[in-house]
Amino acid sequence: MIVTVTLNPALDLTYAVDALVPYGTHRVATVAERPGGKGLNVARVLHQLGEPVLATGLLGGATGTRVAELLRHEGVRSGFVRIGGETRRTVAVVDGSDATGFWEPGPTITPAEWALFLAEFRELLGPATVVTLSGSLPPGVPLDAYAVLIAHAKRAGVPTLLDTSGPALRHGLLAAPAMAKPNAEELAALAPGPVVAAARALATGPVVVSRGAAGLVAVAHDEVWECAPPVPVDGNPTGAGDACVAALSRGLRDHTPWPELLADAVALSAAAVAAPVAGAFDPEVYRQTRAAIPASASGGSRVRTHR
Amino acid sequence: MIVTVTLNPALDLTYAVDALVPYGTHRVATVAERPGGKGLNVARVLHQLGEPVLATGLLGGATGTRVAELLRHEGVRSGFVRIGGETRRTVAVVDGSDATGFWEPGPTITPAEWALFLAEFRELLGPATVVTLSGSLPPGVPLDAYAVLIAHAKRAGVPTLLDTSGPALRHGLLAAPAMAKPNAEELAALAPGPVVAAARALATGPVVVSRGAAGLVAVAHDEVWECAPPVPVDGNPTGAGDACVAALSRGLRDHTPWPELLADAVALSAAAVAAPVAGAFDPEVYRQTRAAIPASASGGSRVRTHR
C-alpha cells in the first residue's frame, strides 16, 4: 500500500453565502466539510483510483475526530497518531464572485507526540510500497522532520515522494527522497533561475516541477522530460498538485518510465482541475486527457529528452 | 437546580485577523472557541454566580462533542440529547475595525430525536427549580415546541422563563410561561406600538422587555416596573440579554420582589456588557452597578409603579 503522511491536516469548511458583506452578518446557505491538507488529498485521489492507500499523520481534538470520520465515510483507510492539540480548520467563504479564506494556525506538536509518530511511521514502513510526504510542518515538529522520515524509509527500502515548500523542502531534499514535486514558485523560492538548473542545484535525485497549465518538467539525473495537457482545462486548480503526487507515487511503485509517468500525472492533474473540490478528479476528463497524450517519447507528444 | 434549555446551540468561533480583505486569504492569528447559543450563555452566567445549573438541549456530531467538552472544561453540568445531525458553528472574524459574522444553518431534528428530548426534559423536571427556554428552534422541531415544554413544566410545578423571538415566542406565550424576556425589537415584531400595551396584548403573564442601555421594563398583571443602569457601560452587548435571563431565573426561583429582581438583572446585564465575551460577566462591575441601584421601589431609583 501507499502511505500518505500529513503532519498538518485540516478540516476544510466551505461556506456558500449570497454576497460577502464586510462587517455584516451572513446566514450561510450551505456548509461543505472535507478532510483538508495536501496529503489527505493524495490519499483520497489514490483511493478513488482504486489503489490501496493508508493516510497517516497527526490529528487532535474534536476537529481531528471529524477529519478521521470524514475519511472513514469516503472509505479511505487511516491510521493517525492522536495529539493533545486541536486540528486546525480552514474556512473558505464563497459567493458569486470569489472565495475569501481564513486559515487557523495549526496545533503545536510536543516532542513526545513527534516521537510517537516516528514509532508509528516505522511500523507502517513494513507494508508500505511508497511513502508520500505532503504539506507544511506544524509548529513543534523539527524542521528536518521530512529528512528524518526519508532516512527511515530508505533504511526500510521504501521510496519516498516529497511535496512541500520552504525550509521543510530544503531540509527534506538533503536526505535525497526518491522524488520531489515542488511547484515552480516553491522551487524558485529556494533556488531562483531556470527550472532545470534550480532543480539540479537543490536535489541529487529526480525533481518533478509542476507549472500549472504549462504542465510538468521532470529533471532526472541526466535527462529532462516535459509534458503538458493537450488542451487547457477550466476549473478549480486547488488539489491538482496533490493529484499529480498521487499519480507519481503510483508510478514510483510500478517503476513506470518517465513518458508514461508524466502523461499519467498530467492527465490526473487536469482531471482534478475539472472536479469541483480538491482531493477528487473527474474520471472522464482523466481518461480523455490520458488518451490525448502519446504514451512514448517517440510518440510526437510534447515529451522530449535532453542529455 | 436551574435547567437551561438550548435547542439550537452552536460552537462559536472567533477569528482574530489583521484586516479583513474581501477575496483574500487570511492567516488567523488566534482562534477562540466557546459554547454558543443563548441558553448556554445563561447556564455559564449562572455557573459563574455559583448557582446550581444544568444545561440541556440537542447536540450532535464532532462539533456537538466539542461544545459539551468546552462546557465540561468550564465546570458547567450538562445533559444534552445526542442527535444525528451536526451542531452548527458560528464564525466571527474580528479585525481592528469590527466583526464579520458567518452563521451555519442548524441541523434538522427528526421526530424521534424530539421525542427523546421530551422524555429527557420530563426527567429533568424532577430536580428542576426553574427552567429557562432560550433562542431559536432548529428545523424539524415543531413551532409550538416551547409551548409544549412550558405545559410539561407547569404540570410538574416548575416555573419557566421564555426568551425567544418570532413564531416561537408567539406560540410559547400562548402556554403562559411564568415569565417572558423578549427584547424591544422582538416584542415590536409581534405587536407594534407602546411596550406596555404590546406586552399585555401578547401575554397573560409577566413580560420583562430589555431595551439595551435604556434598561428593563417589567409588565406584570397590574403593575409596570422600570430599571436602567445608573451609568452607561462600554463593551460587548452580545450576551447581555442572557445574563438578564440568568438573573431573572434565579429571582423566579427565590420569589424576589420586582424592584430587587430588576436591579439585579440590570446590574448583571451591565456586567455582561463589561466582559469581553458572551456568557461571562465582570464581577466588579456587577457589584458596583448593583450597589448603585436602590433596591426598593421607594429608593428614589428609576423604578416606578403604575396601577
TrEMBL record, chains A, B:
InterPro entries: Carboh/pur_kinase_PfkB_CS (IPR002173), PfkB_dom (IPR011611), Ribokinase-like (IPR029056), Tagatose/fructose_Pkinase (IPR017583)
PROSITE patterns membership: PFKB_KINASES_1
Gene3D superfamilies according to UniProt: 3.40.1190.20
Pfam families: PfkB
Keywords: ATP-binding, Kinase, Nucleotide-binding, Transferase
Domain Carbohydrate kinase PfkB residue range list: 10-278
Protein name: Sugar kinase
